[in-house]
Design brief:
The protein has about 240 residues and is an alpha/beta fold. About 30% of the residues lie in helices and about 25% in strands. The chain is globular. The chain binds ribulose-5-phosphate (5RP). It catalyses: aldehydo-D-ribose 5-phosphate = D-ribulose 5-phosphate.
Amino acid sequence: MSQSSGVDPAKLAAAQAAVALVEDGMKLGLGTGSTAAVMVRELAARVAAEGLKLRCAATSQATADLATSLGLRIESLDEIGWLDMTIDGADEVDPDLHLIKGGGAAHLREKVVAAASDRMVVVADPGKVVEILGAFPLPVEVLAFGFETTRKLIRRALDELELGGHDVMQRLRGSDPVITDEGNLILDLHLGCIPDAPALARALAAIPGVVEHGLFLGMCDLAIIGRKDGSVIQL
Ligand code: 5RP
């Protein structure tokens, strides 16, 4: 049965429109976050109602647990090999479909899965659509080894890009560090605005202690933005 009461109608509209793109026999990547969770529930409802045969890989342990609890069988990305489509949420979407992701600290696996997909579809509510990326703090997954050194190198890279002076904060849950599914730590870069996202992406990727940043540039093929009235717009 499809979910309805208590679910954000904008997220539900986006999720339903994305799940409508799913065809029998597809190999799917399942994203992480609250919107992706709505999508996973819709997908499970369609599979139960229509008996679709799908193969699914999850972008986080949380999504794998949710999907499994709803009767979807999760396989590893390597078992499936290549995916037809990944459906995921985002923290920001700009007019070129460049994204900030990682609000749920899952952007490393999300990027690995999206990069192994023919198509990446983002599901989001209108609050995620921006003219320029950067109001949402940019998540960067970093190794615990040399953590403070990596933070210094990130600050230096930001200075060189004239983005210096902004907070580079370790993400905490209460007073404990957030640990990702891969056992790493998260730094959130409070930049306000990212005028040249490709330059920042290159600079971060060049720092050895950076495992992956949350800029998804040129990866998203379609963004489905749900609205509270149940309609959607596609970017
Ligand atoms: C997790 C993500 C999420 O997709 C992103 O944070 C959006 O989450 P939500 O739908 O809960 O707003 O990138 O790492």
